[in-house]
Amino acid sequence: MSAWILVLPLLAAALHTTWNALLKTAADRMVTLGSIAFVNVVVGLVLLMLFDPPDRASWGLIALSMVVKYAYYVLIYFAYRVGDLSLVYPLARGSAPLLVALGAAVFAGEYLAAPAQAGVVIACLGISSLAVGNLGKLRGSPLPIVLALATGLIIAIYTICDGLGVRASGSAFGFLGWIYVLELPIVLAVLWLRRGDAAVAIGSHWRYGLLAGLCSVTGYSLVVYASLYAPLSIVSALRETSVIMAAVIGTVLLGERPWQDRVAASSLVAGGVALMTVYR
Length: 280
Description:
Elements: H1 7-25, H2 29-50, H3 59-82, H4 85-108, H5 114-128, H6 143-169, H7 172-181, H8 184-193, H9 198-226, H10 232-239, H11 242-252, H12 260-278
Helix pairs in contact: 1-9, 1-10, 1-11, 2-7, 2-8, 2-9, 3-6, 4-5, 4-6, 4-10, 5-10, 5-12, 6-7, 11-12
């Protein structure tokens, strides 16, 4: 495995941070989400026209991946309704790579060297630790934690499906085309939910949606492509460093406090990434 492959999920993490920041600051998040899905669909159609379709061996994984992704949208919606973003997001994203490592071992026979396994665990602990300071907001209910961990499981399932699917597809870009085109129901759902003012809302926010969509589709394409050549658990862990990037941006550029926990979390993740890259 060439070292440059590991740069791809790190670039994807930066793009993931960017489109999430755009979504967070958007005046109309539902329309922005719909716009992101629309960009994915358009890119998917272009890819299907330019590249060969994926082999039949990957069709079942494409179908399973999309069903799970639809479930992800529903689950994350309810998770954010009952729990704060600062609690749910790090737990969901921090738990996913560990579950991916387990799933990759079971379904793909991928076993990392012991130091690399330790690196994945350390990185996940660093990401998840950002939620520790927000445990006091649970108000005695464990439901936000349950939903966050369930979301991490969903993320792990579609990550494994897409990683194994693209390997079986024989046409990476054809595979990407289908998983993007199948986001059409999300676009239709947003149009139906906003049927009264969709045209006005889209006209006012399409620039945000376009930029966020381009970051999203480029970032996830890098992740899936990296999965062709690198272990799924390492790709997943490197991608989820987006949580740390967002925390650092919040501290340095937005002056968010406290900063000590973010520095500690970033140090853990940096150490984990170093172990993964050196002992891959």
